[in-house]
Amino acid sequence: MAIARYENLTVKSLTTATDSIGQQVVTQTTWFETRARVQDVRNSLEITKDDRVYTDLVKFTMNYTPWMKQVVDYQNQYSINWRNHDWRITDVMESNDRMNITLFCYRNDPVVSV
Questions:
Q1: Which of 88, 65, 64, 60 is nearest to 75 (CA)?
Q2: How far apart are CA 54 and CA 110, in angstroms?
Q3: Count of beta carbons in the 10 Å neighbourhood of residue 34
Q4: For 35-63, what is each residue's pLDDT tens digit?
Protein backbone atom coordinates (compact mmCIF):
# COMPACT_ATOMS: atom_id res chain seq x y z
CA MET A 1 0.00 0.00 0.00
CA ALA A 2 1.38 3.40 -0.99
CA ILE A 3 1.94 6.13 1.55
CA ALA A 4 -0.22 9.19 0.96
CA ARG A 5 1.24 12.59 1.69
CA TYR A 6 -0.97 15.55 2.41
CA GLU A 7 0.43 19.03 2.11
CA ASN A 8 -0.86 22.57 2.51
CA LEU A 9 -1.61 24.65 -0.55
CA THR A 10 -3.32 27.91 -1.38
CA VAL A 11 -5.89 28.46 -4.11
CA LYS A 12 -5.59 31.88 -5.71
CA SER A 13 -8.03 33.64 -8.00
CA LEU A 14 -6.61 35.34 -11.07
CA THR A 15 -7.80 38.63 -12.53
CA THR A 16 -6.53 39.84 -15.89
CA ALA A 17 -6.43 43.47 -16.96
CA THR A 18 -4.64 45.69 -19.42
CA ASP A 19 -2.26 48.41 -18.26
CA SER A 20 -1.85 51.89 -19.77
CA ILE A 21 0.49 50.69 -22.55
CA GLY A 22 -1.64 47.71 -23.54
CA GLN A 23 0.21 44.91 -21.77
CA GLN A 24 -1.75 42.20 -20.02
CA VAL A 25 -1.41 42.22 -16.22
CA VAL A 26 -2.45 39.26 -14.04
CA THR A 27 -3.33 39.92 -10.39
CA GLN A 28 -3.41 37.03 -7.90
CA THR A 29 -5.62 37.11 -4.82
CA THR A 30 -5.60 34.41 -2.15
CA TRP A 31 -9.01 32.74 -2.12
CA PHE A 32 -8.60 29.94 0.44
CA GLU A 33 -6.07 27.57 1.98
CA THR A 34 -6.56 23.80 2.03
CA ARG A 35 -4.77 20.47 2.17
CA ALA A 36 -4.41 18.11 -0.77
CA ARG A 37 -3.00 14.69 -1.42
CA VAL A 38 0.16 15.25 -3.47
CA GLN A 39 1.14 12.60 -6.00
CA ASP A 40 3.34 11.98 -8.99
CA VAL A 41 5.63 14.99 -8.79
CA ARG A 42 7.58 15.02 -12.05
CA ASN A 43 10.36 17.35 -13.13
CA SER A 44 11.51 17.44 -16.73
CA LEU A 45 14.11 19.26 -18.77
CA GLU A 46 14.02 19.92 -22.50
CA ILE A 47 17.21 21.09 -24.16
CA THR A 48 16.98 22.70 -27.57
CA LYS A 49 19.80 24.13 -29.64
CA ASP A 50 19.92 27.40 -27.68
CA ASP A 51 17.76 27.01 -24.55
CA ARG A 52 16.93 24.77 -21.61
CA VAL A 53 13.28 24.62 -20.54
CA TYR A 54 12.37 23.23 -17.11
CA THR A 55 8.81 21.97 -16.64
CA ASP A 56 7.24 20.48 -13.52
CA LEU A 57 4.00 18.49 -13.26
CA VAL A 58 2.14 17.43 -10.12
CA LYS A 59 -1.18 15.84 -9.24
CA PHE A 60 -3.32 17.22 -6.37
CA THR A 61 -6.35 15.29 -5.08
CA MET A 62 -8.89 17.21 -2.99
CA ASN A 63 -12.36 16.72 -1.59
CA TYR A 64 -15.29 17.73 -3.77
CA THR A 65 -16.69 20.98 -2.34
CA PRO A 66 -18.66 23.86 -3.88
CA TRP A 67 -15.48 25.97 -4.01
CA MET A 68 -13.55 23.20 -5.75
CA LYS A 69 -16.45 22.78 -8.19
CA GLN A 70 -16.02 26.45 -9.09
CA VAL A 71 -12.29 25.91 -9.65
CA VAL A 72 -13.09 22.98 -11.95
CA ASP A 73 -15.66 24.96 -13.95
CA TYR A 74 -13.40 28.01 -14.38
CA GLN A 75 -9.88 26.59 -14.21
CA ASN A 76 -8.36 29.44 -16.21
CA GLN A 77 -9.31 31.85 -13.40
CA TYR A 78 -7.39 30.04 -10.63
CA SER A 79 -3.88 28.96 -9.74
CA ILE A 80 -2.47 26.78 -6.99
CA ASN A 81 0.38 27.96 -4.76
CA TRP A 82 2.42 25.03 -3.42
CA ARG A 83 6.00 25.10 -2.14
CA ASN A 84 6.12 28.85 -2.81
CA HIS A 85 5.53 28.39 -6.53
CA ASP A 86 2.45 29.11 -8.60
CA TRP A 87 1.03 26.15 -10.50
CA ARG A 88 -1.50 26.43 -13.33
CA ILE A 89 -4.26 23.85 -13.75
CA THR A 90 -3.94 21.88 -16.96
CA ASP A 91 -6.40 18.97 -16.49
CA VAL A 92 -9.14 18.05 -14.05
CA MET A 93 -10.65 14.68 -13.20
CA GLU A 94 -13.82 14.36 -11.12
CA SER A 95 -14.41 11.00 -9.49
CA ASN A 96 -17.62 9.29 -10.59
CA ASP A 97 -19.12 9.53 -7.11
CA ARG A 98 -18.09 13.21 -6.82
CA MET A 99 -16.12 12.62 -3.66
CA ASN A 100 -12.74 13.76 -5.00
CA ILE A 101 -11.34 16.09 -7.61
CA THR A 102 -7.87 15.56 -9.06
CA LEU A 103 -6.05 18.54 -10.53
CA PHE A 104 -3.06 18.10 -12.82
CA CYS A 105 -0.95 21.24 -12.48
CA TYR A 106 2.19 22.44 -14.21
CA ARG A 107 4.77 25.13 -13.70
CA ASN A 108 7.42 26.45 -16.05
CA ASP A 109 10.66 27.93 -14.83
CA PRO A 110 12.19 30.69 -16.91
CA VAL A 111 13.98 29.59 -20.07
CA VAL A 112 17.75 29.47 -19.54
CA SER A 113 20.37 29.85 -22.24
CA VAL A 114 22.55 26.82 -22.93
A1: 88
A2: 7
A3: 17
A4: 999 988 888 888 888 887 778 899 999 99
